Amino acid sequence: MARAPLLQLTDVFLTFGGNPVFDGLSLTVQQGDRVALVGRNGSGKSTLMKVMAGLAEPDRGEVVTPAGIHVGYMEQDPDLSGFATLGEFAAAGLQPGEEYRVEMAAEGLKFDPDRPVATASGGERRRSALARLLAQAPELMLLDEPTNHLDIEAIGWLERQLADTRAAFVLISHDRAFLRNLTRATLWIDRGEVRRQEKGFAAFEDWREATWAAEDEARHKLDRKIKAEARWAVEGISARRKRNQGRVRALAALRQERASQIRRQGTAAMALDVGTQSGKRVIEAKGISKSFGERVILRPFDLRVARGDRIAFVGPNGAGKTTLIKMLTGEIPPDTGSVAHGTNLEIAVFDQARSAIDGEVSLWEAMTGDPEMRVSGRADQVMVRGQPRHVVGYLKDFLFDDAQMRAPVGSLSGGEKARLLLARIMARPSNLLVLDEPTNDLDIETLDLLQDILGDYDGTVLLVSHDRDFIDRVADTTVAMEGDGRAVIYAGGWSDYLAQRGEAAAEAVPEKAAPVKPASESPAPRTRPSKLSFTERHRLENLPAEIARLEAEIARLNEFLANPELYASAPQRFAKASEALAERQQALASAEEEWLALAERDEG
Q: Residues 395, 400, 403, CA angle at the centre, nearest 5°?
């Protein structure tokens, strides 16, 4: 049976500064769609979302939403002006009594609804905007980089909410694992054209490579045809006084077709250079700890970092990952213990806040104004890995164009700011690279290139990230900040960490010879090896929290439905809340049955 459309774009044309962003774009989003929206930075993903949300008007074409359909949009930089607290903003538009939805979202996304807007960080503002969208429960959700500023736990919570929702959604994200786990279709923006495939992001890269291979083959055939026709035209001049004018016009048309083809944007020409090789021992930390007042950030902890190690630091926001790295690099002292550095260390830092770049200066000044990069006596050149380069040429390696050279850094997108910071870092030789959330805002192609560069880098890498896929691809060791100041070292990346943590929890205590006891005493129960797989064990451990969450949601819904005037005054809200209550009661029953079955199997 055909699904009803929730949003339809027909022959949309949109330009910025004379250059068409979309020309003749038509697409439909239907009930149940779970769509990944992908494309290079600057290709128009966020612009397309704003058109879909009705926040940007196309120059031509129609954007139609059926009557009664609510389209919700979460933008990257929400405007919270006019609201006193994050919770007040998140609850805007909800009916009285529905504030519990904001409370549930705030708990999952880890922000305080009572936080004043004036003192809230950018990440907290984004989380409140995401909570607002989830609380409104629209039929279609448009999500622009929702995982930015979320830690891995919050990303997992959001992933579960979107997996369980009945709403359709279109999703922009750099997080491969998030896209793979959630999407069933892909919209790909490439050089102003929007293609659609009815497969999720997991199939995107194969589709992209096949599309480009077919495009290259067609271009090769066109080039050969133009060559052959051009040869005929030259030879025809001497062979005949009167040439076939139709073939001449056809040759001109072929050349025009070839000239009109838009070349694919290349990848940034990024490279890392290890200058002086560091010693085999890069960092040795012994018994280091840190507290701020009564809050324990890190209990005594030992870590040895050897040359060439790739170490990822994971854990919830606020657990102390960045603080630990700053202690390891010597930026802040530990309260106890010692940190010793090896010889010849040259450290380069990519910081999460992008604080190394002044938003008021131009891109040109951001590069030439750095005394460590400036070429003496030359205002237009920078030193790149020991060689002078013209600032424009070097920035073009990172996909910046001439028009951006004198633009303020503050006008750049998040992905462009990340590329600019990478350009500064990669201009200098280094042998210890510190990357604090480097994947935020980067497109898939740039992430691929960064991963390859780190794979070839001869130095040492300390990485803070919430991108599970990137950690798996880069890290050979994971340090998990597990709460209460505990830091635990695991071999491998994110998936290896999950497996080892699960195995450690499920590992049976070795049996020992039981001591002789009086007959009146019952023998101590023996520990049995677990009969569950790792996945089942992990599920058994997580089910109690899921059951508690469902019970809390059911209690809130029952409280909401207890209003005797609700049915008469707001029958639609009563119906929606009743439907939500039935869904959660069914989910609770299923979760309890699953827990009981797994627990019985585990007990043998």
A: 110
Which stretches of 31-81 are assigned E, i.e. beta strand? 34-39, 60-64, 71-74
**Residue 505's pLDDT band (cuts 50, 70, 90):** very low
* pLDDT bracket for residue 335 (50, 70, 90): very high
pTM: 0.71
pLDDT of residue 528: 44
Superfamily of 5-206 according to CATH? P-loop containing nucleotide triphosphate hydrolases (3.40.50.300)
Mode of pairing for the β-strands spanning 185-190 and 193-197: antiparallel
Residue 419: count of CB within 10 angstroms of its CB: 24
Convert the pLDDT of each residue in 158-201 to its tens digit.
Answer: 999 999 999 999 999 989 999 999 999 999 988 778 899 999 99
Q: How confident is the model at residue 515 (pLDDT cuts 50, 70, 90)?
A: very low
Q: Report the C-alpha gap between 353 and 366 in whole angstroms.
A: 16
Rounded CA-CA distance 11/51 in Å is 13
Strand 140-144 to strand 168-172: parallel, antiparallel, or no bridges (unpaired)? parallel
Torsion 568-569-571-576 (CA) sign? negative
List the structure tokens of 327: 């202690």
Residue with tokens 């585990």: 602
User: Which residue in 518, 488, 520 sits closest to 505, CA to CA?
Assistant: 488
Among candidate residues 318, 36, 44, the one with its CA nearest the CA of residue 175: 36
Q: What is the mean pLDDT of the chain?
A: 81
Q: Is the dihedral of CA 487, 488, 491, 495 positive or negative?
A: negative
Please report the sign of the dihedral spanned by the C-alpha atoms of residue 415, residue 420, residue 421, residue 427: positive
Yes or no: say if 415 and 446 are a contact pair by the CB < 8 Å rule.
Answer: yes
DSSP string computed for 348-369: EEE-TT-TTS-TTSBHHHHHHT
The string of pLDDT tens digits covering residues 399-423 is: 788 888 888 888 777 777 888 888 8
User: Tokens 């101590």 belong to which residue?
Assistant: 524
Q: Residue 531 belongs to what H/E stretch?
A: none
CA distance 207 to 36: 14
Percent of the residues in the chain that have a pLDDT greater than 90, as a whole number: 34
- Residue 540's nearest CA partner among 531, 553, 552, 551 is 531
Spatial separation of the C-alpha atoms in residues 156 and 125, rounded to whole Å: 19
**For the structural domain made of 281-500, what CATH number should be given?**
3.40.50.300
Do 281-500 and 534-603 share a fold? no
Q: Which fold has domain 534-603?
A: Helix Hairpins (1.10.287)
Q: How far apart are CA 237 and CA 232, in angstroms?
A: 9
Domain spans, the chain: 5-206, 207-260, 281-500, 534-603
Residue/partner pairs of 381-387 with CB below 8 Å, 24 or more apart: 382/427, 383/427, 384/427, 385/271, 385/273, 385/426, 385/427, 385/428, 385/429, 386/273, 386/275, 386/429
- For residue 167, the number of C-alpha atoms closer than 13 Å in the C-beta half-sphere is 23
